[in-house]
Structures are given as C-alpha cells and as structure tokens.
C-alpha cells in the first residue's frame, strides 16, 4: 500500500531516475510534489506498469501535481562523472526547474547528494512505497522512452524504439555491426566479452 507523505511537510518532493543501466542516451530524473493525501489506485513503480498505463498516469500526474520537473544528464557527462553522480545531477537539475523549492526530499534508492540545504531521506524501493516517488518514476521513464524513440528514427540500427538503450541482444548486435554513436556511453561495457581468437574450448 503506497502512502503520500513521509515528513509531514506539505511541499515534499519525490525523486526517481530512469536509464542508469542503459548503454546509450541520457539518464533522466524527475521531481514531483503531489497534493497532501494524494491517492491513485493504479500508480506504482513504473517498472510494474505497462506502457499504456504509464502514458495514462503521465497525463494524470501533469494534471494533479502541485509541481513537477524533469532533468537530464548527457552520455558525455555520464562518461565524465560516472553514472551514480550523473543520476544525482539529473535529480538536482529536475529540482532546479521546480517553481518552488521543496521543504523535504524523498529519494528512491539508498544514496543521494544533498541539494542546497533541503533535508532529505533515501528510501529503498521507494517507488513502490510512496506515491510521489512512483509519480517521479513514471515521468522519468516516459520522458526517456519518448526521447529514445525519437533518437531511434535517426539511429534505427540499435533498436532504441524497442529497447530504450538497454543492453539487449539487438542493441549489442547493432553496436558490433555499426560501432557506437554519439549517444552511447563510452565508459560502459558496450559489447559482451568475447573469447580470445586463439582460445581453445576444452570439453
């Protein structure tokens, strides 16, 4: 059963990201402030929802949220500062775009870099425990999936419209055949380890 608030503060923002495990594209984070005692029967962790359900909830969140914002960190920045720091930076960028500074932050996961002087708490599996974190997961996921689908029109060989940049067999096959492009994270393991050419298979 999800709940709407942790701190008791009216302007409590939920934070979550999407795309940490991808080989290509930005990492995207969202910050969402929902009304006190907000409830929605369908809203939960975006990974447990269908694409149709996420799109439905996206519109609902836009309509009902007190405030929401999305932040991105590019593949080049990810390569420079690593994916963990990039995830925190994406959350900070989302917070920077909110029309008001939250009184409290609730972050999905177990680590976070403090934002200004705003108190925060980290919640493991927070996207299945709190409505505003679940809402942030939906916005981050739908925003990123839409972006990767658009990029797929320019780079169809990687199958991003279907895999959103995650390390699927189709995506890795595209990298093997065509090489990486400007949207790939070059510090990530883009290809699975291959046996040495002269390796002998012992049976």
Strand order of the largest sheet: 3-2-1-4-5
Shape verdict? globular
Helix content: 25-40%
Structural class label: alpha/beta
- Taking pLDDT < 50 over at least 5 consecutive residues as the criterion, the unreliable ranges are 194-203
Q: What's the rounded overall pLDDT mean?
A: 94
- What's the CATH architecture name of the domain at 12-150? 2-Layer Sandwich
Give Rg in angstroms.
18 Å
Distance between the termini: 52 Å
List the secondary-structure elements in sequence, H or E: EEHEHHEEHHH
Strand segment count: 5
Say which CATH homologous superfamily of the domain at 12-150 is assigned. Answer: Ribonuclease H-like superfamily/Ribonuclease H
Instruction: Name the assembly state.
Output: single chain
Count of runs of 4 or more consecutive helical residues = 6
Q: Specify the biggest β-sheet.
A: 5 strands, mixed
CATH level 1 name of the domain at 12-150: Alpha Beta
What secondary-structure arrangement, pairings included, does this model have?
Layout: E1 12-18, E2 27-33, H1 51-64, E3 67-73, H2 75-81, H3 83-96, E4 104-108, E5 120-123, H4 131-154, H5 160-163, H6 169-178
Parallel strand pairs: 1-4, 4-5
Antiparallel strand pairs: 1-2, 2-3
What does this structure look like?
The protein has helices spanning 51-64, 75-81, 83-96, 131-154, 160-163, 169-178, and strands spanning 12-18, 27-33, 67-73, 104-108, 120-123. A five-stranded mixed sheet has the order 3-2-1-4-5. The chain has six helices and five strands, in the order ββαβααββααα. Mean pLDDT is 94; it is low at 194-203. With 203 residues, it is α/β, with parallel strands linked by helices. The protein is 36% helix and 15% strand. It starts with 11 loop residues before the first strand and ends in a 25-residue tail after the last helix. The chain has a domain at 12-150: Nucleotidyltransferase, domain 5 (2-Layer Sandwich). The relative contact order is 0.22.
């Amino acid at each position: 059963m999800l709940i709407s608030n942790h701190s008791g503060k009216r302007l409590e923002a939920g934070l979550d990201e999407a795309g940490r495990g991808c080989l290509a594209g930005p990492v995207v984070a969202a910050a969402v402030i929902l009304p006190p005692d907000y409830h929605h029967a369908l809203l939960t962790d975006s990974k447990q929802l269908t694409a149709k359900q996420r799109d439905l909830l996206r519109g609902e969140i836009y309509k009902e949220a007190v405030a929401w914002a999305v932040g991105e960190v590019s593949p080049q920045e990810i390569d420079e500062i690593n994916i963990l720091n990039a995830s925190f930076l994406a959350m900070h960028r989302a917070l920077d775009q909110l029309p008001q500074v939250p009184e409290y932050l609730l972050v999905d996961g177990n680590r976070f870099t403090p934002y200004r002087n705003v108190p925060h708490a980290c919640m493991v599996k927070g996207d299945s425990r709190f409505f505003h974190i679940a809402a942030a997961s939906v916005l981050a996921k739908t925003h990123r999936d839409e972006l990767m689908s658009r990029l797929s029109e320019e780079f169809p060989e990687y199958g991003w419209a279907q895999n959103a940049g995650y390390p699927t067999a189709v995506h890795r096959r595209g990298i093997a055949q065509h090489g990486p492009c400007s949207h790939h994270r070059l510090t990530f393991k883009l290809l699975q380890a291959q046996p040495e050419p002269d390796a002998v298979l012992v049976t």
